[in-house]
Amino acid sequence: MNASDPRPPVIGLTTYLEQSQTGVWDVRAAFLPQSYFEAVTRAGGIAVLLPPQPVSPVIAARVLDSLDGLIITGGKDVDPARYGQDAHPATDEPRPDRDAWEDELLRQALQRGLPFLGICRGAQMLNIALGGTLHQHLPDVVGDTRYQAGGGIFNVVDVEVEPESRLHGVLGAQTGPLQVPVYHHQSIDRVADGLVVTARTADGIVQAVEFSEVPFGVAVQWHPEQTAEDIRLFAGLVDAAREYEHDRKAHA
């Protein structure tokens, strides 16, 4: 970067915390697939990883003070107790540490207007944080495994994006269906107050929502980090984060 380059914004990405093996070690470890933070850096941002940890309003505020944008990433299912349901047999064992961490980060990000992007679990977490619910197992709804083939294989589905939405603008006002990679067996059911659905599949499954009260508040059910040739969503977040950082400095 030379002296004339714009100041790169700092983007925080939440991570997994799971039992992991590497070399002789078999320990609980924080990790995130490279495709997530590589997309951020290619879009012009600085990626900072945010592993699950004990959280309080003060801790979350201190973290967000240092960020210009936030990504809530994919991962294990959110604890259904958070939206008043018993667990479906196919629902993952709960990860209460990660749920609590991301919930507090999201709530405070919304309050301060911090640009954010939710990805897969991140879209579900946003909906739950604002009072919505999930379909816990989509094969019970659509009759097959089109949204999660299993074995780490991403299916591609067509989604229809709402015109005039921020998502539509970020994607360059694309016409016709958008093909996206998916790997989810859950999805948004009752949409929370404050969210607007901006993309669905032909069978009605919610694939994107937006929180219109912040400059950039987009969450998608698909995995944009899997399409290395298309970083439009990450670029949109980074651009919004750069504006956020500029405005924050101007009012400091």
UniProtKB/TrEMBL annotation:
One of its GO terms (molecular function) is gamma-glutamyl-gamma-aminobutyrate hydrolase activity. CDD domains: GATase1_2. GO terms for biological process: polyamine catabolic process. Keywords: Hydrolase. InterPro entries: Class_I_gatase-like, Peptidase_C26, PuuD-like. One of its GO terms (cellular component) is cytosol. It comes from the Bacteria. PANTHER family: GLUTAMINE AMIDOTRANSFERASE PB2B2.05-RELATED. This is Gamma-glutamyl-gamma-aminobutyrate hydrolase family protein. The lineage of its organism: Bacteria, Bacillati, Actinomycetota, Actinomycetes, Micrococcales.
